[in-house]
Amino acid sequence: MQATEVPAIAGAYLFEPTPYADERGFFCRTFDADVVRSVGLDPDAFVQDSLSRSVLGVLRGLHLRSGAGEAKLVRCSYGRIFDVVVDLRPDSPTYRNLATFELSDATQRTLYVPAGCAHGFQALTGTADVSYRIDRRHDPAEDVTIAFDDPELAVPWPLPVSSMSQRDREAPSLAEVLKQQ
């Protein structure tokens, strides 16, 4: 497994495993504490694992946490997703930058999203399972959502949205969220 910095988002990394494939399928390590530690992250800081399942066109996001924020490792364990990170840390050299990725079961790449960044994704396959390893326990009172279609962000979502939560549908613009911070 190797770690690669994401130039557009300071402190973000892609962790790329080396799958071993044969006639039975494949095997790969999806988390390695030593590799995580090698880029300055504490592998013991992750306290919660979660899983979401989405169908083709479902959009989740853009989400972040207020207060201290929330760092997470995101991996598409089944299917394919279009993944988006927006740096909303005012002191970051990549403040307001947007980066997009395709995460899939074929690569099993894991994206590290630093605290203070908004995150969202859209399912590109009939079923897409997304695994999250999060560094803080969830507190719904700290949830922040930004409109997925905010023209200031201009996220290039690849598909029409087939479904999303009411919270995501009614999310305020980035400008409105930043006024409240």
From TrEMBL:
Chain positions covered by the region annotation Disordered: 159-181
One GO MF term: dTDP-4-dehydrorhamnose 3,5-epimerase activity
Q: Per UniProt, what is one Pfam family of this protein?
A: dTDP_sugar_isom
InterPro entries registered for this protein in UniProt? RmlC-like, RmlC-like_jellyroll, RmlC_Cupin_sf
Highest taxon of the source? Bacteria
Q: Active site annotated at which positions?
A: H63, Y132
What EC number is given for this enzyme? 5.1.3.13
UniProt keywords, alphabetically = Isomerase
The protein's annotated pathway: Carbohydrate biosynthesis; dTDP-L-rhamnose biosynthesis
**Top-level EC class, please?**
isomerase
Any single GO BP term: dTDP-rhamnose biosynthetic process
Question: Reaction catalysed by this chain?
Answer: dTDP-4-dehydro-6-deoxy-alpha-D-glucose = dTDP-4-dehydro-beta-L-rhamnose
Under the cellular component aspect of Gene Ontology, which terms does the record hold?
cytosol
Which family does the record assign? Belongs to the dTDP-4-dehydrorhamnose 3,5-epimerase family.
- UniProt subunit comment: Homodimer.
Please give the function described in this protein's UniProt entry.
Answer: Catalyzes the epimerization of the C3' and C5'positions of dTDP-6-deoxy-D-xylo-4-hexulose, forming dTDP-6-deoxy-L-lyxo-4-hexulose.
The molecule here is called: dTDP-4-dehydrorhamnose 3,5-epimerase
Q: Which organism is it from?
A: Streptomyces humidus
